[in-house]
Amino acid sequence: MILITEFMDEAAVKSLANTFETIYDPDLADRQDDIPSKLANVEALIVRNRTKVTKELLSTAPNLKCVGRLGVGLDNIDQVACAERGVTVFPAIGANNLSVAEYVISSAMTLLRGAYTSTNEVLAGGWPRQACAGREISGKTLGLIGFGAIAQHTATLARALGMDICAYDPFLPSDHNAWEGAQSLDLEALLVKSDVISLHTPLTPDTHHLINADRLSHMKTDAILINAARGGVVDESALSNALRDGKLGGAAFDVFETEPVTLESGTIFKDVPNLLLTPHIAGVTAESNVRVSSLIAKTVANHLAAPE
């Protein structure tokens, strides 16, 4: 039996249902407490980022063989507990690289240009041409914090637009071909140099609040910060203060320390200028959903069909 707790491409769901008993409840993640009662006979669990696959949850799934993650981040899955129980975790590596890269570039262009929020003013009779002139992305420096597959894809798109690329990644070997066309810098030098900074790191004890008030102070006052990686990598309070005080040019956030953002947790962003907020959808497009869903459906099906 397969249990799917969050949205998945319908064609991929049908492909699984043709071979396996499949329960598809895309809203089940909103009812986390209901999940354990459905796991007794489940061999494969397919989730996105909202289902918390904890040690306690795993204890209610005695027949579980694998967890398919419709995405690449594994913050919501206790990988140690899975390994201890012999449960294999399958992330959709590579399937949403393009969608996240496009999110970064489109956010950068929107914030640099600064003209795309003028609709209401124009319709009200305003004509703010000078205020909306904005800046071009060509010739700007993109700083990538973390230089894995998604960041490398982002760099490819950015180069095509005439951007210069620098990156900070102490874990990527210096002879890796990704460094061709990208300058390797330490973190502080990257913050000082970059016009647009995009985060591509997991959330770990070492990266929690990696971008804090001190590091924000090293950035250009007109720089753009984009976080489509993980909430918690940026100190949200420090970021909001920097934007309010005019010490940062703009920011786009797709991930947050508290997800989903609530009325209470969202107050930190209230009346913050030049800020774009999206609900953790950088990796989710119509096209990437098909790729991610298809990859996980095939991987899970193959794993369940393999002889033990």
Please supply descriptive tags for the structure shown above.
308 residues; alpha/beta; Rossmann fold; 2 domains; seven-stranded parallel beta sheet; five-stranded parallel beta sheet; 31% helix
Mean pLDDT rating: 96
Q: Write the element-wise H/E pattern from the N-terminal end onward.
A: EHEEHEHEHHEHEEHEHEHEEH
Number of helices: 10
The N- and C-terminal alpha carbons lie at a distance of 16 Å
The fourth-level CATH homologous superfamily of the largest domain is NAD(P)-binding Rossmann-like Domain
Overall geometry comes to: globular
Class computed from helices, strands and strand pairing: alpha/beta
CATH class of the largest domain: Alpha Beta
Helical percentage:
25-40%
Instruction: Note the main sheet.
Output: 7 strands, parallel
Number of domains: 2
Rg of Cα set: 21 Å
Strand percent estimate: 5-15%
Describe the protein's topology.
Elements: E1 2-4, H1 10-17, E2 22-24, E3 44-47, H2 55-58, E4 66-69, H3 79-85, E5 88-91, H4 97-113, H5 119-123, E6 141-145, H6 149-160, E7 164-168, E8 183-184, H7 187-193, E9 196-199, H8 213-217, E10 224-227, H9 236-244, E11 250-253, E12 275-277, H10 286-305
Parallel strand pairs: 1-2, 1-3, 3-4, 4-5, 6-7, 6-9, 7-8, 9-10, 10-11, 11-12
Helix pairs in contact: 1-10, 4-6
